[in-house]
Write a structure and sequence with these properties.
By secondary structure, the chain is mainly α. It contains 13 helices and 4 strands. It folds into 2 domains: 104 residues, Cytochrome Bc1 Complex, Chain D, domain 2 (Orthogonal Bundle); 137 residues, Up-down Bundle (Four Helix Bundle (Hemerythrin (Met), subunit A)), CATH 1.20.120. Helix 2 crosses helix 6, helix 5 crosses helix 6 and helix 11 packs antiparallel against helix 12. The protein binds heme C (2 copies).
Length: 315
């Protein structure tokens, strides 16, 4: 005789079945969508479009993206690595990215047809053949880059929430690491125990924000933020600004990230003592923790524009 247990295990079983059904439904809708959209076919653009795109590219893009579109300061714009990076997104998204944000120093200066010509040139450089029909607005939304690495994307999820990287490493550092580190560095020039900051006139959200969470509480939080976000330096699939994968497999890179986590833990403990002098001395070590990694992986090579960092993220 079969016995039925309505214990937690059975509940889990039921849940698992429900989850499977959900996943199946999701898979179905994805396939449903895929049926309308096409992956990039040969003949998606005309030779004239690609040629116009090439001229524009040589005039406005080559310095940062390279003679062979291989990536210099900015990422590669052709080939396998480019296809992988754009996997699952539409050509419309690529054209938007070009038109709205490139060239970096003059965003929004290209017309829509120019941005489309540039995309056509990139497809040509990726060995897709030209055809009779011009790439146009209607086709852009229909054509998708082939979905890449579904297994890797699934692996980087927690409780069904995707943890796939959205930023390149430089964007992540500028958006997350840099502002938090600056709160810690600021203890060297300003006592967090001093009076409450005053609301700014004229109004400014950033300055006002520091009147809400200020003093040692803000220092605690910045140290905690570094402890929690530094492991994201290791997130699989993230690229550097020049398109190279973040060197997560390099032992020294791993060590530099670990050193920063350890130091941020020490800084958090130091913050609890509410002693400016002691904390300020420790913040000096933070400078080294950032610089040790930057010396090897960031400030290497020179750009044609005279800046540093063309050889960033070498493996
Ligand atoms: C001054 C340097 C510079 C110039 C000039 C420049 N880019 Fe970029 N480009 C970058 C950087 C840096 C990134 C990475 C940051 C980002 O995605 O915004 C990038 C990203 C891109 C991306 C996204 C690639 C990806 O895989 O995410 C595209 C597409 C692109 N550029 C196209 C162009 C085109 C087309 C031109 C010429 C019209 C151009 N860029 C000119 C620096 C530049
Ligand atoms: C484990 C290595 C590592 C550590 C530790 C590290 N960084 Fe970085 N950082 C990099 C690399 C590599 C880049 C270049 C990324 C790219 O080009 O996409 C970078 C880029 C940056 C940038 C952007 C520079 C630009 O291009 O404008 C800033 C800002 C930054 N880091 C701040 C910090 C601060 C502050 C710390 C310490 C609290 C820190 N980083 C710790 C590796 C590291």
């Amino acid at each position: 005789m079969m016995r039925i247990f309505w214990g937690p295990a059975a509940m889990r079983g039921t849940l698992a079945v429900a989850m499977c059904a959900l996943i199946a439904a999701a898979a179905f809708s994805v396939t449903g969508q895929a049926r309308q959209a096409r992956t990039i076919p040969d003949g998606a653009y005309t030779a004239e479009q690609a040629q116009r795109g090439q001229q524009l590219y040589k005039a406005q893009c080559v310095a940062c993206h390279g003679e062979k579109l291989q990536g210099v300061v900015g990422p590669m714009l052709a080939g396998e690595a480019f296809l992988t990076a754009w996997g699952g997104r539409s050509l419309a998204e690529l054209v938007d990215k070009i038109q709205l944000t490139m060239p970096l120093q003059a965003p929004n200066s290209l017309t829509r047809p120019q941005a489309i010509d540039l995309a056509a040139y990139m497809l040509q450089a990726t060995s897709l053949r030209a055809g009779q029909d011009a790439l146009n607005e209607a086709a852009l939304k229909q054509v998708m880059f082939p979905a890449a690495r579904p297994a890797a994307a699934a692996a980087a999820s927690s409780g069904g929430v995707s943890m796939a990287p959205a930023a390149n490493l430089a964007q992540f550092m500028r958006g997350v690491t840099f502002p938090n580190a600056n709160i810690l560095f600021n203890v060297q020039v300003k006592d967090p125990g001093a009076e409450k900051p005053r609301a700014p006139v004229p109004f400014d959200y950033l300055l006002w924000g520091y009147t809400q969470y200020y003093g040692w509480q803000a220092v605690d939080q910045a140290a905690l933020a570094l402890i929690e976000t530094t492991p994201l330096f290791m997130l699989p699939g993230r690229r550097c600004e020049n398109g190279r994968p973040v060197p997560v497999n390099r032992a020294d890179y791993q060590q530099f990230a670990q050193d920063l986590v350890n130091l941020a833990k020490d800084l958090y403990r130091a913050s609890q003592a509410r002693n400016q002098e002691k904390f300020a001395a420790m913040a000096e070590q933070l400078n080294d923790a950032c610089a040790n990694c930057h010396k090897v992986y960031r400030d290497v090579g020179t750009a044609e524009g005279g800046g540093l960092g063309t050889d960033r993220c070498r493996q």
